[in-house]
Amino acid sequence: MTGTIDSLSGATILITGAAMGMGAMYARLAVADHAAHVVLWDVNAAALEEAAAELRGRGSDIHAYVVDVSRLEAIEEAAAKVRAEVGTPDILINNAGIVRGKYFWEHDQRSDIAATMNINTLALMHITREFLPEMIAGGRTSRIVNVASAAGLLANPRMSVYSSSKWAVIGWSDSLRLELVQAGHTHIRVTTFCPSYIKTGMFEGARGPLLTPLMEPEAVTQRVWRAMKEGTPVLMMPWTVKLSTALRGVLPIKAWDVVAGRVFGVYKSMEHFTGRK
Fold first, then answer.
1. Using 50, 70 and 90 to split pLDDT, how confident is the model at 274?
2. Each residue of 156-197: pLDDT tens digit?
3. CB half-sphere exposure, 201, CA atoms < 13 A
4. Where in the chain are the domains?
5. DSSP 3-state of 156
6. CATH number corresponding to 12-268
7. Rounded to an integer, what distance in angstroms lies between the CA atom of residue 106 and that of residue 268?
8. 3-state DSSP helix/strand/coil % of the chain, to nearest 5
9. Alpha carbon of 191 to those of 172, 208, 238, 274: distances in Å?
């Protein structure tokens, strides 16, 4: 099985949601790691050009594409351009995502439910499906990072739609990992990333549960980068995510609700959520 990647020299990396936040940080890491081509996808044209301008002239070829990943047609069109103009990515970081923090019955069906599922779940599948056959055929050491969430492991009030989108990502992403191994395509490794709250503005107003403070994005992206290069199957951050998942698996529902709600404060973590303005 293909081992750890020492350097991205000569590699092509595609990052979604690359105009700001952690997506932009991944792009900076790619340039610092001497990637030959860094492909940036984002729906925000102005922010995307700003991010691309910052990276140009540092050694990597920067390719910026305005893409609305909530639309399959837009993904297909952008993927075709990337294949024609840059080539098949060696590394794909499915980072783009949105969050809607409200009770389920308060969600608008289009702008909340459909948008969340399209961007957080279906986009990852569609984008990966666009490039995966050529990644398989190419035989080059490759990586796919799918950004899920601790919310995909544990239910939480005011996160029903977001949680469902991330539960789906975890199931699909780890199944994909197993399928690639079973089919003998071991030059491609899949990492499923399951973080708790990160200080990016996306979860503005959310409060970290007991022993789980909001994480600094720079430290998180560096840890994900290392996991990607090592081909780590699943990365949970911080350590309390693993603890909570284990407790949820062994405790009766009523007991877990007490622990999560009253002891750790998980069920109250979204009470003051405002999100990115």
1. very high
2. 999 999 999 999 999 999 999 999 999 999 999 999 999 999
3. 5
4. 12-268
5. coil
6. 3.40.50.720
7. 18
8. 50, 15, 35
9. 12, 24, 16, 29
Rounded Cα distance, 11 and 185, in Å? 18
65, burial (CB in 10 Å: exposed 0-12, middle 13-18, buried 19+)? buried
| Bridge partners, residue 265, by sequence | none
21-41 residue pLDDT tens: 999 999 999 999 999 999 999
Please measure the distance between the N-terminal and C-terminal CA atoms of the chain and give it in whole angstroms: 44
Tell whether the model's pLDDT for residue 1 goes beyond 50: no
Q: Which residue type sits at 237?
A: M
Q: Each residue of 65-106: pLDDT tens digit? A: 999 999 999 999 999 999 999 999 999 999 999 999 999 999
- Contacting residues for 75 by C-beta, under 8 A, at least 6 apart: 67, 69, 123, 126, 127, 130
Tokens representing residue 156 in the block: 């939480």
DSSP 210: T
CA atoms lying within 13 Å on the CB side of residue 77: 10
DSSP state of 198: B
Which residue type sits at 15?
I
Q: Considering 26, 65, 103, 162, which one is annotated as catalytic? A: 162
Q: Which two tokens stand for residue 5?
A: 């990647």
CB contact set of 34 (below 8 Å; sequence gap of 6+): 7, 8, 9, 59, 60
- Contact of 252 with 53, CB cutoff 8 Å: no
What's the rounded Cα separation, in Å, for the pair 228 and 143?
A: 7
> Would you call 162 a catalytic residue per the annotation?
yes
The whole-angstrom separation of Cα 195 and Cα 152 is 10
Which amino acid type is present at position 191?
T
